[in-house]
Structure formats: structure tokens, C-alpha cells
Design brief:
alpha/beta, 17% strand, binds pyridoxal-5'-phosphate, globular, single chain, Aspartate Aminotransferase, domain 1, 4-stranded mixed β-sheet, 373 residues
């Protein structure tokens, strides 16, 4: 058999296994629009599944900023920030993020994923230990593996378990957690984790991907990463840290050194988004009020963020409910293993400032109907 034949046979065998396990995923063309509206296959839908919590991704002010920056700086960055010379919008964005987070300095990366996989291995290595919350995002796990450090996973939000593992840890310890957990919407006990780290000379790094602009509260983590692709409605990742750490990352984070910088239009859109977050706090308040109303209508515990998991257990059931909701005009994605643990397949319902109270009421009615069927 030719190499091409072996390659396609390999892919087909894998696809077969994925289909048999109900884990084959497909990309579905969807046109997103303002205020959580979308259309797919000619049908109008309301999206309750994206991370555009402040409904900024289609905001005319971000679009205008992006167009102006494209005219002024062009579209592509040309090469790595270290090679072509740094587009000045990077440092504007970095200064704004550092000020917002009350940190000394900031470094913008191509995405949140790249920020994590570049930063973690730059901080610790083979003789060190990483303590990681079991529900931390896949890119924190990937960054941890790339570092070569010993990885010890602690039970979700269980500070006592983290403390136990801390006792046995060797070398420099880096503790990784999310501030707002992406699939459960709950918050990390960040103050307790910081105190634990302080007692053991460990470093705390937080992933604030789902907190930026929504759940802004004091964060004692020494290293704080996040993304501009969610509430900021744009794209890109960042790390805030002491100035010397940032300086070190510029030379040591491979996912900064060896990848092309963000396009200027995206940087300009992200800067505009930070302005809007600051000037229009009612957006975050509206998104949170929408999540609270939904939980109240469905008798769910009050939400800790704008992400509400509706756990249904079986993968197939989650998929059926998601499809039935789409048929009624709502996009609510089913999240299943390996993204979440076996037996915890769920609908991940996310709320945005662009949803009206009526949208939320109608979704909760539709969901109750579909779940009862
Ligand atoms: C917790 C968390 N961290 C990091 C990322 C990666 O961010 P980005 O989409 O900017 O690569 C995500 C995105 O899904 C996330 O949910």
C-alpha cells in the first residue's frame, strides 16, 4: 500500500472509532450577528453557547477600530513580534491590560492557548512540580506536559487536596487553576490557593479566560493569563506578571518567539473592547442578571458567573436535547467527554448582555419542554 493509502486508512480507522464512540465532531457553518443572534442553514437562531459575554464581537465600534487599523497598519503582522519589529498597538494593549489587572507588566500572545503553552514551560522544568486543578482547561494541561515538570492533579477546587500534594512536591512548585471554570461556571478559591502557595514558596498562576470584563475581582495570583477572544469579543491571549517575568517570557516563551504576532485590526478591536468594558459596566451586569434569571426560572442554584451548566449525564441525551433546542431556534451546545468527565455531559448555557429578558424566558420554557419530553 502507498504512503497515501496508509495515511487515509489510518484516518478512516480513527474516524470509525470516533463515530462508534459518538465522539465524531463536525464544523457547522454559522453566521454570527449582533446581540447573540446567528443564522445556520437559512434559519435564524439565538445563541446561548458562545463566550461573547458582552456581545462585543459584532459591535460597530470594534469593527470600526479594526477597519481603521487595517488601513493604517495592514492586515497581517508579517512575522513574529521579535522579527518584524513590534506593532505599536501591542504595547498599548499590554499597558491597558496590566493597569486593568493591577499588575506590573503584560505580554500579548497569539491566543490564550498559546499564552498557556508558552508561559508554563518558561516558568518550570524537569525538576519542578506542577499542581493542577483537575478541571483546568486543556491548554493548561498541555503547557504542563510541555514543561517536563512532574504533574500532580488535585480534585476540583479542593484546597486540602492541593495542600496534601504540596507536601510531597519537589523543586519549584507552580499551582495552576482557572478563576472562572469554563465548563462549570464556578469560581476557584483563589485567596486560599494563594495563601497555600505563599506558605510553601510556590507560584500561583490563574487562567482568567472567562473572568476578564465579567468577574473582575482582586486576584492574588502572581501570574495571570487570560484571553481577548471571549468577553473582549476579539482574539489573542495575554499574561500579566511582574516586569522581570514578562521580560523573561519575551525571550523564553516559544509560542511568542516562534509564531507570528497578532494582526493590527485584532489588537485595535481588543483595545476598543477594553474601553467599552470600562465605560459600560452595565453590560457585565446585564449578562449576570440574565444568568441569574435563567437559574431562578429553572430552579437551579444561583450562578457564580455567566456560564450555567445543565448536567444531563449521558452523551446521547445531551446531543438530543441540544438538537431539539436548535429545532426551536436556540443554539445551546452539548459538551461531552473528553472535554468534560464521563457521565457529566451537559448543556453549557452561556449568557450575554445582548440577550433580552424575553430571550431568557423563552429559552427556559423551551428547555423545560425538551427535558420533560
Ligand atoms: C479556560 C480557558 N483557557 C484558555 C482558553 C484558550 O483561549 P483562546 O481561545 O484565546 O485560545 C480557553 C478557550 O476555550 C479557555 O476556556
Amino acid at each position: 500500500m502507498s504512503s497515501l493509502g496508509r495515511l487515509t486508512r489510518h484516518a478512516e480507522a480513527r474516524l470509525e472509532r470516533l463515530r462508534a464512540a459518538g465522539q465524531h465532531r463536525v464544523l457547522r457553518p454559522t453566521h454570527r450577528a449582533t446581540d447573540a443572534r446567528a443564522s445556520r442553514a437559512g434559519r435564524d437562531l439565538i445563541s446561548f453557547c458562545d463566550n461573547d459575554y458582552l456581545s462585543l464581537s459584532c459591535d460597530p465600534r470594534l469593527i470600526h477600530a479594526a477597519c481603521e487599523a487595517a488601513r493604517h497598519y495592514g492586515v497581517g503582522a508579517g512575522a513574529s513580534r521579535l522579527i518584524t519589529g513590534d506593532c505599536p498597538l501591542n504595547s498599548v494593549l499590554e499597558q491597558r491590560l496590566a493597569a486593568m489587572k493591577g499588575m506590573e507588566a503584560c505580554l500579548v500572545f497569539g491566543s490564550g492557548y498559546l499564552a498557556n503553552i508558552g508561559t508554563i514551560p518558561a516558568l518550570v522544568g524537569r525538576n519542578d512540580t506542577i499542581l493542577l486543578d483537575e478541571l483546568s482547561h486543556s491548554c493548561m494541561h498541555a503547557g504542563a506536559r510541555l514543561s517536563g515538570a512532574e504533574i500532580r492533579v488535585f480534585r476540583h477546587n479542593d484546597v486540602s487536596h492541593a495542600a496534601e500534594l504540596m507536601q510531597e512536591a519537589t523543586g519549584q512548585v507552580l499551582l495552576l487553576t482557572e478563576t472562572v471554570f469554563s465548563m462549570d461556571g464556578d469560581l476557584a478559591p483563589i485567596e486560599e490557593l494563594a495563601a497555600l502557595c505563599e506558605r510553601h514558596d510556590a507560584w500561583l498562576m490563574s487562567d482568567d479566560a472567562h473572568g476578564l470584563g465579567i468577574m473582575e475581582k482582586p486576584n492574588p495570583a502572581l501570574i495571570q493569563m487570560g484571553t481577548l477572544s471571549k468577553a473582549a469579543g476579539a482574539y489573542g491571549g495575554y499574561v500579566c506578571a511582574p516586569a522581570s517575568v514578562i521580560d523573561m517570557l519575551v525571550s523564553r516563551a516559544r509560542s511568542l518567539v516562534y509564531t507570528t504576532g497578532l494582526p493590527a485590526p485584532i489588537l485595535a478591536a481588543a483595545i476598543t473592547a477594553l474601553d467599552i468594558m470600562h465605560a459600560e459596566p452595565q453590560r457585565a451586569a446585564q449578562a449576570k442578571a440574565n444568568a441569574a434569571l435563567f437559574c431562578q426560572l429553572l430552579d437551579l442554584p444561583p450562578p457564580e458567573s455567566v456560564i450555567v451548566p445543565v448536567i444531563v449525564g449521558e452523551e446521547a441525551r445531551a446531543m438530543t436535547i441540544s438538537a431539539a433546542l436548535e429545532a426551536e431556534g436556540y443554539l445551546v451546545t452539548a459538551i461531552r467527554p473528553p472535554t468534560v468527565p464521563e457521565g457529566t455531559s451537559r448543556l453549557r448555557v452561556t449568557f450575554a448582555s445582548g440577550h433580552s429578558e424575553e430571550d431568557v424566558r423563552r429559552l427556559s420554557e423551551a428547555l423545560s419542554g425538551v427535558m420533560a419530553a
